[in-house]
Amino acid sequence: MLKYFLPAKLLLVGMLLMAMSSTAWAQRTITFASDCTWPPMEMINEDRECVGFGPDLVNAMARAGGFEAVIRNTAWDGIFAGLAAGRYDAISSSVSITEERRRAMDFSDPYFEVKQGVVVRQDSDIQSEADLAGKTIGAQIGTTGYFTAMRIAGNNAKSYDEVGLAITDLANGRLDAVFADDAVAADFALTNPDFSQNLTLAFLIEPDEPEYLGFAVQKGDTETLELINSALAAVKASSEYDQIFKKWFGGE
User: Angle at Cα 20 formed by Cα 16 and Cα 22, nearest 5°?
Assistant: First the structure.
């Protein structure tokens, strides 16, 4: 019986070694949720792909960190609830790091600094924050732009599911101004062919404290957070971060 038992035992050992090797070399997949309606940070291109500064950074991080990145287009309105429910591993959607959000989720190291940009029609007399008194201001719901609009305009702040809808209402005269992250505000007001002839970026609102974007993960998910942070640090330390920045913003 020994002559039959020994090959079977060797075969079992070999199979175990192969399984261990496959596990060791298997790539971790991190699924990122992103509301791809926030150009040029995250947006849908003609091929229905989510592109922009954020996706390019995530893909560079995946290469640097040795993981596979999957970007799932997700509506902003439910994006935080989806993270809490475990429908994805992280959020890559220009999420500003705030103390209130820190109580519900954990954040990576910052990867981008923003200010709130004020978009108005070119014939508007709004040139400063003081000029916004009594004005109707639109912004995407649940964003720091909307929180700023509520602080300044109170009941005259109007929320939208997507910032593009607010911009359209502004162009059509139904709003006096729209608040959004400066990169997004500039994209709609200065480069978008549908709006740049009628809209302009009036000014930036100076925050009391710097506002930074970060990747959000579930509270206590240290494994994913450490992998994201180490990959982000590697991309920042290389020239690739600067190359991605130049691609989308044309500057240093």
Answer: 115
